[in-house]
Amino acid sequence: GAVVSQHPSRVICKSGTSVKIECRSLDFQATTMFWYRQFPKQSLMLMATSNEGSKATYEQGVEKDKFLINHASLTLSTLTVTSAHPEDSSFYICSARPQGAYGYTFGSGTRLTVV
Amino acid sequence: KQEVTQIPAALSVPEGENLVLNCSFTDSAIYNLQWFRQDPGKGLTSLLLIQSSQREQTSGRLNASLDKSSGRSTLYIAASQPGDSATYLCAVSPGRGSRLTFGEGTQLTVNP
User: Fold this and answer.
1) Which of A69, B37, B78, B106 is least buried, going by the fewest C-beta atoms within 10 A?
2) Which chain B residues are within 8 Å of A46, Cβ to Cβ?
């Protein structure tokens, strides 16, 4: 089946530094990928929609200058958390819909801890 | 704005029980509904997807039903096992390729 690979699975960084998270569709092309954030004991909240070759669409309240999204190819989208702060600590997860499929496939997620 | 609610928030049952997880949504204009499983610290695994024109889908011990007009879906798990312990999330989409709106999830614990 369709696989979405997400790396790293876990990262700890110092406050003020930037962290890049990669999301790859391994066996299909994804013109659109979605980035979600999940706080402990809460559900997934959509942060932004990543579109190949164009600017991402951010949800209300999500700072586009802080969460930089790049979707430079049909199989790779990246989320960069810039100048990370402890409140950015969360579980970040991406998803994509394989062509011809009705449902979505999710990556394994990235646990970000900012210290 | 679509809102998705899942009841109960948590459920603990002994092994072997049949159980039902509930999902309701406020806007019935959905394209499909998807049930996911999430293990602690992990990503989401798709369990079942129901198109808006369908009433149910089955996979092994899992059966999901959809009543679009009333805004409800149920996930039925037969003969539960400890390995079924996880958080179960339902999500709806208004169109093909459109964003998903998730419920808060039901945390299931199956005790041996």
Assistant:
1) B78
2) 99-101
